[in-house]
Amino acid sequence: MSEVWPGRRVLVVDDDQSSRRFFRSVLEGEGYQVEEARNGLEALELILTYPVDLVLLDIMLEGMDGIEVCVRLKADERTRLVPVVLVTALTELEERIKGIEAGADDFLSKPVSRLELLARVRSLVHLKRMNERLDSAESTILALARAVEAKDNYTEGHTERVAFYASSLGRRLNVSGPTLQVLEKAGIMHDVGKIGISDVILNKPGELNPEEWRVVKQHPAIGENICRPLRSLGQLLDVIRHHHERVDGQGYPDGLRGEEITLESRIVAIADAYDAMTTDRPYRKRLSREEAVRLLQEGAGVQWDKDLVREFIQLLAELGKY
Predict the structure, then answer these.
(1) In the CATH scheme, what is the code of domain 134-318?
(2) Under 8 Å CB-to-CB from 294, ≥6 apart: which residues?
(3) Over the stretch 256-272, which tens digit does the pLDDT of each residue have?
C-alpha cells in the first residue's frame, strides 16, 4: 500500500455498482478514503456535508448527468477548487469539449486502467493540496506548471516528485517551516519557464544540437521573468532561476559557484537531477536507481553540493528507493 499522500478523500459518482466497486477497491488499496454516490443530486448533497479532495464523476448518469453536476460544482464557491475527473465510455470530441467547458480537470475513458486511474488521482489530489497553500496569483503559475507537464510527454508527475524529494531532504536537514514551503512550491514551479520552449525541442527523440541546447538553457530565466511580478513568490524566484547552477561555476544561467547558490536551489537541483535520471526521457531510457546514485556521487562537489548529495542518498535509502 502506498503511503506517499495519505488521508485523501475521493468521491466516486456512478450509477453502476460494479464500477463503484472497482474504484473503491483500487483507491482503498492505495490508502485513499472513498465515498460513493449513485446520482448527481446525491453527489451534490454529500460533497457539501463531507468535503472531498477529488471527484470521479461518470458522465452518463440518470437524471442530472455528469456534465451538469460538474457545472454546479465549479459554480459553487465551496467546491469550485475540488478537482473533477469525468469518466466516460464516450470518445466523441464534442462530449469532451462539453466537459472542458463545464470545468472538468481531467478525463478517464472506460474501461478504466488501474495505473491511469492512480496516476490521475495522485496528481490531482496533490495539486489540490498545493493549491490550498497558494494565493490566487500563485495558482496561476501552478496552472502554467501543469501546462509544462502537458507539453512534455515524458515528465508526467515530475514536478510533484521533485517537490516530494526536495521537501523530504529539507526535513532531514531540519530547515525552517518557511524554507520547507519554498522547497515544496519550488519543486512544482521550477520548470515553469519551459512553457516558452518549443514542444519540438522538448520532445526531440535524440541529442539536442548546440542551437537547441541554447534555447533549452533559457528556461530558468524565462521562468523567473514570468514569476517576477508576483511578490508573494519571494525566494521561489531564486530557485526557479538557479536550479541548474553548478557548484563548480559551470552551470546556467549565471555561472554561480558554491554557496553563491542558495541552499534551496542546491537542494532542488539534486532532487530534479535524480528524478530526471530515473525516468524515461525522449533522448534516453531511464537509468536504474543504482546508476543514478553513482552519477550523483561522481558529480558531488563538481555539479552538486557534496554534503547535500550524501544526505540525499541516505534519504533515498530510508525511503526504500536505493
Answers:
(1) 1.10.3210.10
(2) none
(3) 999 999 999 999 999 99
